[in-house]
Amino acid sequence: MTAPIIVTALFGAGDFAILDALRRAHFPPERNVLRAHLTMFHHLPPSVVGEVSGLLQDEARGNDPRARLASLINLGGGVAFRLESPELEDIRARIADRFASMLMPQDRNPWRPHVTVQNKVKPPEARALLDALSVDFRPRALELAGLAAFYYRGGPWEPIAAYAFGTGRKIMAPA
């Protein structure tokens, strides 16, 4: 069975632990089948899996992008953190150029990097979390550890490959 490919940026261990703990605490448990993540592409065709893996390794080898958690986002039925990273946006643009003719509409639209920590809740619950997080929130640096590709099969993602920024060496991606 073929499945679309999802491409993500991976967080450093400390930032991943914080963001994933927030997701586990505030995302409805029956809907939370994923760990904290930063999606770069939602749907690349499975036929390009080898090319995607090679491109991610090449991009990771030559890059160590800086990033920051810039602000909170009210999703209406949830809350996310908006990220800023011009270097990661450049990486995404190069990957998008490579696969331009294959991109789904969602991936052709302007990219708005974010990490969702709550979704699929009633607006008052989302507003309460936004208000609570806003009390102590300050923009801050965020460590990005690498790039990863996964197969989307409807539930938890199936890891394909992950590569560390700065070296391009193969690493494990959180499942």
Task: Put the structure in a nutshell.
With 175 residues, this protein is α+β, with helices and mostly antiparallel strands. It has helices at residues 13-26, 49-61, 86-98, 105-108, 123-136, and strands at 5-11, 38-44, 67-74, 79-84, 114-118, 140-142, 144-151, 158-164.
Word description of this protein:
This protein has 175 residues and is an alpha+beta fold. The protein is 33% helix and 29% strand. It has 5 helices and 8 strands. The radius of gyration is 16 Å and the shape is globular. It starts with a strand and ends in an 11-residue tail after the last strand. The model has no long low-confidence stretch (mean pLDDT 95).
Mean pLDDT: 95
Apparent shape: globular
What is the topology, as strand order, of the major beta sheet?
A: 2-1-7-8
Number of helices: 5
- The fraction of residues in strands falls at 25-35%
Give the class from helix and strand content and strand pairing.
alpha+beta
- Please state the CA-atom Rg, rounded to the nearest Å: 16 Å
What is the end-to-end distance? 20 Å
Helical percentage: 25-40%
Residue windows where pLDDT falls under 50 for at least 5 positions:
none
N-to-C SSE string, H for helix and E for strand? EHEHEEHHEHEEE
Count of β-strands: 8
Largest sheet composition: 4 strands, antiparallel
